[in-house]
From TrEMBL:
<dbReference type="InterPro" id="IPR016454">
    <property type="entry name" value="Cysteine_dSase"/>
</dbReference>
<comment type="similarity">
    <text>Belongs to the class-V pyridoxal-phosphate-dependent aminotransferase family. Csd subfamily.</text>
</comment>
<dbReference type="InterPro" id="IPR015421">
    <property type="entry name" value="PyrdxlP-dep_Trfase_major"/>
</dbReference>
<feature type="domain" description="Aminotransferase class V">
    <location>
        <begin position="25"/>
        <end position="396"/>
    </location>
</feature>
<protein>
    <recommendedName>
        <fullName>cysteine desulfurase</fullName>
        <ecNumber>2.8.1.7</ecNumber>
    </recommendedName>
</protein>
<keyword id="KW-0808">Transferase</keyword>
<dbReference type="GO" id="GO:0006534">
    <property type="term" value="P:cysteine metabolic process"/>
</dbReference>
<dbReference type="InterPro" id="IPR015422">
    <property type="entry name" value="PyrdxlP-dep_Trfase_small"/>
</dbReference>
<dbReference type="InterPro" id="IPR000192">
    <property type="entry name" value="Aminotrans_V_dom"/>
</dbReference>
<dbReference type="InterPro" id="IPR015424">
    <property type="entry name" value="PyrdxlP-dep_Trfase"/>
</dbReference>
<dbReference type="InterPro" id="IPR010970">
    <property type="entry name" value="Cys_dSase_SufS"/>
</dbReference>
<dbReference type="GO" id="GO:0031071">
    <property type="term" value="F:cysteine desulfurase activity"/>
</dbReference>
<dbReference type="Pfam" id="PF00266">
    <property type="entry name" value="Aminotran_5"/>
</dbReference>
<keyword id="KW-0663">Pyridoxal phosphate</keyword>
<dbReference type="GO" id="GO:0030170">
    <property type="term" value="F:pyridoxal phosphate binding"/>
</dbReference>
Length: 409
């Protein structure tokens, strides 16, 4: 495997520790990623040297903080190839961005009898905002089915997206099934019916090149913490004509143009959507994470993670009693692998693996309708990132066999 990636591990101080007496094997990257030293240092540097509130002071620190915050916005714009930095709204994360769209665009454009289309593989954060909007508006929520191997059924998407559809809200990459959906194709379907497409990019942006203009997504949300950046910062991309047409999400400082006693007018996009003091250090940390990812190259990261999947999947599939959810062919998958071991609750499996220093997730992964669809209560999930390697996978496989032996499965 690529030598360059072996060295990357040294950039992440947290990985250099023992857990329960064993070297840490961190395989919970779909939940959150670890941070390279450069990102940690950048945030410390900001707080040590430049900390001030943005956009509201003429003093030097205030100007520096504003400049760095806005420079981070431009980094995000270039990273996902948005047409303008005005189309980049800083949020708390994916959840916040998706709620923003539902509460503003959704609130203004969905009426009784309209349809909102989601899929069975949505994370709750790309599901509940639409479910609640549909309930408020007496609109109908429709679910696109999955194929037998857990991919989005594009034929069913074609059926479900109709002239009644106002919003199509879909994840680009599933946080459970390890599949990536063809957002470009789905955007064409949505646009053919004058609907907008809202893409959840939480699991895609950290792992592959994303070009929002090529995808022709109307809205695209993602989180900083899953892409080596800090928690509490995220991004909502929206096409500028749509963002301009939307009412503000929250009201308060910084999002206004003029405030009179009984009425107010709003700042331009994107600031109209950034009420109150923002997570400036978070945005700057995210900007540094983007520099770091770009240095390595998003395609290189995607290729490397594919190599990890090619290595891991056959080994997992060969374990007697272990079921892998989603496609069994590595070419249709990315580095999120959910599985269950017959006879053992996934929480017990995850606890047993933790005893060996291996961090995997167990639960419903904020995707309860999907769990029901798969007819399971929960799964264990190993998810890879650029600092994982074959040795991590070997450890995982060995520990699963040991767990089987221990529980006599
Ligand atoms: N969508 C997907 C596909 C996710 O995996 C996650 C995080 N698990 C989210 C949305 C929500 O992201 P956040 O918690 O950062 O808002």
């Amino acid at each position: 495997m690529d030598k360059k990636f072996q060295k990357i591990r040294n950039d992440f101080p947290i990985l250099n520790q023992k857990v329960n007496g064993e070297p840490l094997v961190y395989l919970d990257n779909a939940a959150t990623s670890q941070k390279p030293q450069v990102v940690i240092d950048e945030m410390v540097r900001f707080y040590q040297n430049d900390n001030a509130n943005t956009h509201r002071s003429v003093h030097t620190l205030g100007e520096r903080a504003t400049e760095e915050y806005e420079a981070a916005r431009v980094k995000v714009q270039k990273f996902i190839n948005a047409a303008s930095s005005r189309e980049i709204v800083f949020t708390k994360g994916t959840t916040d961005g998706l709620n923003l769209v539902a509460s503003t665009y959704g609130e203004n454009n969905v009426v009784a009898g309209d349809e909102i289309v989601v899929s069975y593989m949505e994370h709750h954060s790309n599901l509940i905002p639409w479910q609640q909007l549909a309930l408020r508006k007496h609109a109908t929520l429709k679910y696109i089915e999955l194929t037998a191997d857990g991919q989005l059924d594009l034929n069913d998407a074609n059926q479900k997206i109709t002239n009644k559809t106002k919003i199509v809200a879909l994840t680009q990459t599933s946080n459970v099934l390890g599949v990536t959906n063809d957002i470009k194709q789905l955007a064409i379907m949505a646009h053919d019916h004058n609907a907008v497409i809202v893409a959840d990019g939480a699991q895609a942006v950290p792992h592959q090149p994303v070009d929002v203009q090529a995808l022709d997504a109307d809205f695209y949300a993602f989180s900083g913490h899953k892409m080596l950046g800090p928690m509490g910062i995220g991004v909502l991309y929206g096409k500028s004509n749509l963002l301009k047409s939307m009412p503000p999400y929250q009201f308060g400082g910084e999002m206004i143009d003029f405030v009179e006693k009984y009425q107010s007018s709003w700042a331009d996009i994107p600031w109209k959507f950034e009420a109150g003091t923002q997570n400036v250090a978070g945005a700057i940390g995210l900007g540094k994470a983007i520099d770091y990812l770009k240095d390595i190259g998003m395609q290189n990261i995607a290729d490397y993670e594919n190599q990890l999947v090619d290595y891991a999947l056959p080994k997992l599939l060969a374990i007697p009693g272990l079921t892998v959810y989603g496609p069994q062919d590595p070419q249709y998958r990315n580095g999120v692998i959910s599985f269950n071991l017959t006879g053992l609750h996934p929480h017990d499996l995850a606890t047993a693996l933790d005893m060996d220093g291996i961090a995997v997730r167990a639960g419903h992964h904020c995707a309860q309708p999907l769990m029901k669809y798969l007819d399971v209560v929960a799964t264990a999930r190993a998810s890879f990132y650029l600092y994982n390697n074959q040795a991590d996978i070997d450890q995982l496989i060995r520990a699963i066999y040991e767990t089987k032996e221990f529980f006599r499965l």
